[in-house]
Design goal:
single chain; about 350 residues; alpha+beta; Immunoglobulin-like; five-stranded mixed sheet; about 15% strand
Length: about 350
């Protein structure tokens, strides 16, 4: 009777197990620590593999001992004697104390070595220094030596270690690009350092890996790795675009503004202009997502401007109802923003 119940329970759990197995294959390479695309992620994968082999070794030893004891000391038919009572064995106790200590040492040495190396950004600073500031719920990326800043999309050159200085303006967040490196916390009032390196050009997905509020799961960003020539051109174009935007939106040129420019200058520029209160929109038209996760099109942009709280609960961006911006003005503003692209 007990066996039948166990079999029934097994069949009930089988679909859940199969579903979990299928879901384990879901995902994209650019958001997987198991498919490294950078030097840091490769180093961490080696630690994961080492940990897995140690765990499999322990599992195998325990399973062998368990099966041996189960078979050798099982109660035999007609045997009602009391087994020999063993109160302790100093040799065995020393063995099962020493072996775990040795296994921990095997894990600890490469883990500490890798952790220290991933946090050492001295050499990377010679290539590029990028300041990353986490906000509720967006990311600011500043290139202090280049006079360039952007939001939601971090651009780096391929093949070079790039130093990343991390901090936060509000609560604790955590900067994580699984395909390139491990996560590092961003703490208010404190700076943490790490480095990133991508081995090939492409777009890699980043996440906030520290529960920070109701829209934590939507605090996404992108890391765009470019070849050195393309990266240099991007920096030059970003700086030129920022200067052109500042000149174009100078009050002296107000008579020549389009409706979209007027709405932007009156309602958006005070926060988005400097890129400190809200993300810089200098190259907004080139971005892949709105607010880090919405599809980059006019419909979603208008929804976001109208009611950002509906799309990302807890965001600090205010909504602009029809009594502040009419539908016609909103459409013009959306067209203006989507047209803000680099040359």
């Amino acid at each position: 009777m007990v066996v039948k119940k166990s079999v029934k329970m097994l069949f009930r759990l089988l679909p859940i197990g199969l579903m979990a197995l299928m879901l384990s294959g879901c995902g994209i390479p650019e958001l997987s620590a198991l498919q490294p695309r950078g030097e840091g992620a490769e180093m961490q994968l080696e630690i994961i593999k080492l940990s897995l082999w140690v765990m499999l070794f322990v599992l195998a030893i325990v399973a062998v001992i368990y099966i041996y004891v189960l078979m050798k000391f099982r109660r035999k038919s007609g045997d009602n004697t009391v087994p020999k009572q063993v109160e302790g064995n100093h040799t065995l106790e020393i063995i099962w104390t020493v072996i775990p200590i040795l296994l921990l040492i095997v894990l600890a040495i490469p883990t500490i070595k890798t952790t220290v190396e991933l946090a050492d950004a001295k050499e990377a600073k010679k290539n590029e220094q990028i300041n990353v500031t986490a906000n509720l719920y967006w990311w600011e990326f500043e290139y202090p030596d280049k006079g360039v800043s952007t939001g939601q999309e971090l651009v780096i050159p391929v093949g070079k270690r790039v130093a990343v200085n991390l901090t936060s303006k509000d609560v604790i967040h955590s900067f994580w690009v699984p395909a390139l490196s491990g996560k590092t916390d961003t703490n208010p009032g404190l700076d943490n350092e790490m480095w990133l390196q991508a081995k090939e050009a492409g777009t890699y997905y980043g996440k906030c890996a520290e529960l920070c509020g109701p829209s934590h799961a939507l605090m996404d960003f992108k890391v765009v790795a470019m070849e050195q020539d393309d990266y240099d051109k991007w920096l030059k174009d970003m700086k030129s675009a920022k200067e052109a935007e500042t000149k174009q939106l100078d009050k002296k040129n107000e008579k020549n503004w389009t409706t979209g420019e007027q709405v932007y200058a009156q309602n958006c520029l005070s926060c988005h202009g400097g890129g400190k209160v809200a993300p810089s929109l200098t190259n907004f038209g080139d971005r892949q997502r709105i607010a880090g996760y919405l599809k980059h099109d006019k419909e979603n942009l208008e929804k976001w401007i109208r009611d950002p709280q509906k799309e990302k609960q807890g965001t600090k961006m205010p909504g602009f109802s029809e009594d502040k911006i009419s539908d016609e003005e909103l459409s013009e503003l959306a067209d203006y923003l989507l047209d803000k692209k680099l040359q």
